[in-house]
Write a structure and sequence with these properties.
The structure holds three protein chains of three kinds. By secondary structure, chain A is an all-alpha fold. In chain A, 71% of the residues lie in helices and 2% in strands. In chain A, 54% of the residues are buried. Chain B is α+β, with helices and mostly antiparallel strands. Helices cover 56% and strands 14% of the residues of chain B. Classes of the chains: A mainly alpha, B alpha+beta, C alpha/beta.
Chain lengths: 330, 424, 299
């Protein structure tokens, strides 16, 4: 078995595009679900509108990179408003169903033949990232960091991505330790109580939904630029659920929970995947009964089982405090 | 508790393998695109030979003609995106595409689907277009039929939600389980379809009871929160769906001996025998459950538990027993829904997942946890879904149905038949 | 918060002010803080609340009593903006509250507590208290990210919170999670938290429910203190001993309507009240306190 390949692939997943994209999505969810208790099951739609605003504006309509970014963020804000206005007055489970429905609407529209002219149908869009890589100050060449070797463009998007993660963490950290963050936690515990104390709960929930959506949408940009392509089916419900798994793994309502979760999640997923493939290639008995396509499914089986086991045995995740969670006797 | 849960999870795994390992898996050699051209008129299927099919993509073009049995195969050199087109001019007289947009079908050949099966929807040439009114009548019937299928899923979901508070995201996989079990018994073990379907419902009911006993009941005993349980159900859904995919592959499969009989015309509406079976069986099943809930002692106990579990328990009702029955009935209904759904959509690992959102939409529309609400909501969703295709492209009909869900919740935040709760 | 005069004087003032008020439902008060007219709320076919007219005297402790299902909590919810009536109007300090959302009602000086205590479990006691203060700069989104804009106010809020925690004997629990408190301590915390906003009127929904008897006296004293500090108190309660002990005025509801009003001693002799409690409820076991007022019945 080629251990250096296994290690480099695993490290690249843990610190590369995947971890950044899902880390940002989970940071947004952390503000919404972890701190405010909002069940946003449509986080993938926030990534989608950002990624597609960029891709469509640049590729299909000829606007510049920066306009794509600004419109993408505005689109995420608009989506939060559209989702929030009807649902934030409803019970938590209704919010979950409406957000998941809205995310599915977004995905179906993006992949539709009817709107293919703008969004490229099920093939997506792929020529929009030049404006970004033109900004790359790193000299052309390959850069070796430990066992990983990256092109200047890969290195650039990873650096930009981690800077965005750092920025998102800073914003979250400032927000949740302020009186504003205190109101959010109060809403998570009991929104009627907070209302009885003179707080406009609806406004705070809306703010949390918007900020969480905008932080998550940064992940959409990183996905689009990192892959240099957007594809509608990446923005399905499974991506949202992966972000939840990551948040719970790291620890909800902990500032660093989502990032730690994303790193470990992708190391486990990609690591197990590449080890399994190596075993099959090496012709190890039993394991090699699996076809390559079956081996690719194993990671999803692991995510499902892992999410269940985590939620049952360690709902506080890695960083959380079990005693704190046990107080929640609802 | 830890040991029991893990043992149970293992048991599920093994049981699934035992069931599915016997399933015939589609033999996939190299990358290819294939299909079988069938003229579907009045529920019957006749092969259509001599039609030219062309595959282009990834710098590759290849044409072939369909054989005497209607099949065609075009091996492709590599994984990637391809366009498959049918030469309409080579179709025999009177045969046409029922969906004129489907002259070109796009597909992606990639694991796990390196053998892409393309189905061109052939049927009576629709050159003679139906009047708008006739189309509407046909769509209304199809909407009711689909609404009834959704209701089978929605009623179980709603009953389980009402008695346990669980928003079960793994309900779609129960629907899939029913269809897969029936398919396995029918195509794998060669049982007649009716026998396989009955056994499929029974197996799904057992699956529901087992799921409740090994997973949800222990979680309730530990006092796990509702949101935590919802997230567990998401994990279970991902797990089961991918287990199905692992053992069955990503292709759609049809029941064997599924021969259509001649269709019947009721006024403007064309109805196939399978439509009639679907409608009658679902109405009977729904009616049986509704009457059971309204009239029988157990049904009354179910309603009492839905209203107030603590009060029901203190009134001498065995709450856990009621919940177990609800799981059995709810799973059986969902399984039946999946079995019947596969009559028109074929069996696939994600068929339940694909309708789950519509089932949720139906239940939410009707008001979470109300029995009539679930049925009314389902019919609304089914009808809207089909009738909306009069004005919007049919690929966007799900968008329309989900939008309606959001709009209705704006107007009636507690669903069509739901009631709002008191604060404090 | 209003100044504290000599203990006891506010009680006498309240009793005196109410002395001339006739014991009839909807009686006008000399200085009403809250006036409700034709407030009606239906759930399906059931009329939960149908109050023609009721006034609450400023600076007094008013009890709202009635049998189960009389609509007391629903009436509370309507008055505080947690539920919307089908019709009716109600004024607080002369301002119309119809259509005003709950949080604005609270900001206007009418705060409430809940029958099932709503302590914010996974927050520390001191954080619960800080949350109670209104008008915080740091609760605004943009200011919250700039700690220097709200640090000073936060210190002032904290010292006020500590003072209240001390008064309610909760200072030792300051850094504990609210979820770890006992039922009675949660009631105390909820009341103290409500006082953080400096309200004019405090609405208590069953303040004694689920409270350990050892804490009852202390809670009663706290409610009396509210009046002594110039606040108006309206509370829902089942415990007749408590009602008699602390209230200056009693309003009785049955089947959604106000059926009687008056000082506690008079109301408990009222035949309409006894009918409401006993009529149609003969099968229900009477509570010890329920029996105590039937003994005073001259008939």
């Amino acid at each position: 078995m080629d251990w250096s390949f296994i290690i480099s692939t695993t490290l690249l997943a843990a610190f590369g595009i995947e971890a950044i994209v899902f880390g940002l999505a989970a940071i947004g969810l952390n503000l919404q679900f972890g701190y405010t208790g909002l069940l946003n099951f449509g986080q993938s739609a926030f990534l989608a509108v950002a990624a597609y605003s960029l891709a469509t504006l640049v590729s299909q309509m000829g606007f510049s990179f920066w306009i794509g970014i600004v419109v993408g963020i505005l689109a995420a804000v608009l989506l939060a408003l559209l989702l929030g206005v009807p649902t934030l007055r409803l019970r938590a489970d209704y919010l979950a169903i409406v957000t998941i429905a809205a995310a599915e609407i977004v995905r179906l529209l993006l992949r539709s033949v009817t709107l293919k002219e703008w969004f490229g149908g099920s093939d997506g869009i792929n020529d929009f990232s030049r404006g970004f890589y033109d900004l790359n100050p790193i000299a052309i060449g390959r850069y070796t960091i430990g066992p990983i070797s990256l092109s200047q463009d890969q290195l650039f998007i990873i650096i930009v991505g981690w800077c965005l993660v750092a920025l998102a963490l800073l914003v979250t950290w400032l927000l949740v330790r302020s009186p504003w963050g205190r109101v959010l936690k109060g809403i998570r515990e009991d929104e009627d109580a907070v209302r009885s104390l003179g707080k406009n709960v609806y406004l705070y929930k809306m703010q949390a939904l918007i900020i969480g959506g905008v932080l998550g949408c940064l992940g959409g940009f990183v996905y689009a630029l990192g892959r240099q392509a957007v594809n509608p089916d990446f923005f399905g419900t499974d991506s949202t659920f992966f972000a939840y798994a990551i948040l719970i793994l790291g620890g909800a309502a902990r500032v660093f929970g989502p990032v730690l979760g994303a790193i470990i999640f992708w190391a486990l997923i990609q690591g197990s995947d590449v080890i399994l493939r190596s075993l099959i290639d090496a012709g190890v008995p039993v394991v090699s009964l699996m076809t390559a396509s079956q081996a690719a499914i194993i990671r999803f089986i692991l995510v499902g089982a892992g999410l269940m086991i985590l939620m049952i045995y360690r709902p506080q995740g890695i960083l959380g405090d079990r005693k704190e969670l046990a107080l929640d006797a609802r | 508790m830890h040991r029991r849960f893990l043992a149970a999870l293992g048991a599920v795994f093994i049981a699934l393998i035992a069931l599915f390992a016997l399933a015939p898996t589609a033999a996939a050699e190299g990358e290819q695109v294939s299909g079988r051209l069938e003229n579907r008129v009045d529920g019957g299927r006749t092969p259509v030979p001599g039609v030219t099919i062309t595959v282009t993509g990834e710098g590759f073009t290849e044409s072939t003609t369909s054989g005497a049995d209607g099949t065609w195969v075009i091996p492709v050199p590599a994984q990637g995106a391809y366009e498959v087109s049918i030469d309409v001019a080579t179709l025999p007289e009177g045969v046409g595409l029922t969906d004129p947009d489907k002259v070109i079908i796009k597909t992606t050949v990639q694991p796990p689907n390196i053998n892409r099966i393309i189905i061109f929807p052939l049927g009576e040439s629709t050159a003679v277009t139906n009047s708008k009114w006739e189309t509407a009548a046909q769509l209304t019937f199809e909407g009711v039929r689909f609404g009834l299928l959704i209701a089978l899923g929605a009623l179980g979901l709603s009953l389980i939600y009402g008695t346990t508070g669980l928003t079960n995201f793994a309900h779609g996989e129960i629907i899939t389980f029913g269809a897969l079990a029936t398919y396995t018994l029918n195509a794998g073990f060669g049982l007649p379809l009716i026998v396989a379907a009955i056994l499929g419902v029974v197996l799904t009911a057992i699956f529901g009871a087992f799921q409740n006993r090994s997973l949800w009941k222990p979680l309730r005993k530990r006092g796990t929160g509702l949101i935590a349980m919802m997230i567990v159900s998401i994990g279970l859904a991902i797990l089961l769906r991918n287990l199905f995919l692992f053992f069955y592959g990503g292709d759609k499969q049809a029941y064997t001996e599924f021969v259509g009989l001649a269709g019947i015309k009721f006024g403007p509406v064309a109805v196939t025998p399978s439509d009639i079976v679907v409608v009658i069986v679902s109405i009977l099943a729904l009616a049986a459950v509704v009457i059971g809930v309204q009239k029988t002692r157990l049904g009354k106990a179910t309603r009492a538990v839905s209203d107030n579990p603590a009060l029901a328990s203190s009134a001498g009702i065995d709450v856990e027993r009621v919940i177990e029955v609800v799981w059995i009935v709810g799973a059986a209904l969902a399984g039946l829904g999946g079995i019947l759904l596969a009559f028109t959509q074929q069996v696939s690992f994600q068929m339940g997942f694909q309708v789950l959102l519509l089932v949720f939409a139906a239940v939410t529309l009707g008001g979470l946890g109300t029995i009539w609400g679930a049925i009314v909501g389902s019919l609304v969703v089914g009808l809207f879904l089909q009738l909306s295709t009069l004005v919007i492209p049919s690929e966007l009909k799900n968008v329309g149905a989900l939008l309606v869900l959001i709009v209705i919740l704006l107007v009636r935040p507690y669903g069509l038949l739901g009631r709002r709760e008191r604060v404090g | 918060m209003p100044d504290s005069p000599v203990a006891g004087s506010r009680k006498e003032a309240a009793v005196q002010a109410l002395a001339a008020v006739p014991n009839v439902p909807g009686a006008p008060k000399p200085d009403p803080i809250l006036v409700a007219d034709h407030v009606m709320r239906r759930f399906g076919g059931l009329t939960a609340v149908d109050v023609d007219h009721v006034e609450i005297q400023r600076g007094a402790i008013t009890a709202l009593i009635g049998p189960n299902g009389a609509g007391k909590t629903t009436f509370f919810n309507l008055l505080t903006g947690f539920d919307t009536p089908d019709s009716g109007s109600w004024l607080f300090n002369g301002k119309d509250l119809a259509g005003i959302p709950a949080y604005r009602v609270a900001r206007m000086g009418m705060v409430r507590t809940f029958q099932l205590t709503k302590a914010l479990s996974r927050m520390k006691v001191i954080e619960n208290m800080r949350l109670g203060s209104t008008g915080q700069t740091g609760e605004r989104l943009w200011a919250s990210m700039l700690p220097f804009t709200w640090r000073k106010q936060e210190r002032e809020i904290t010292s006020r919170a500590d003072a209240l925690l001390e008064r309610f004997n909760l200072l030792a629990k300051r850094e504990d999670f609210a979820g770890s408190l006992s039922g009675g301590q949660r009631k105390l915390l909820e009341m103290a938290r409500a006082l953080m906003s400096g309200p004019e009127m405090v609405m208590l929904d069953e303040p004694m429910a689920g409270v350990n008897p050892a804490l009852t006296q202390s809670l009663l004293q706290h409610i009396k203190d509210l009046r002594e500090q110039g606040m108006t108190v309206l509370f829902v309660e089942h415990d007749m001993d408590m009602v008699r002990d602390i209230s200056d005025w009693v309003i009785v509801m049955a089947q959604g309507r106000v059926i009687a009003e008056g000082p506690p001693e008079d109301v408990m002799k009222d035949s309409a009240v006894i009918d409401a409690y006993l009529g149609g409820h003969h099968d229900k076991a009477l509570t010890a306190s329920g029996v105590s007022f039937t003994e005073e019945d001259p008939a």
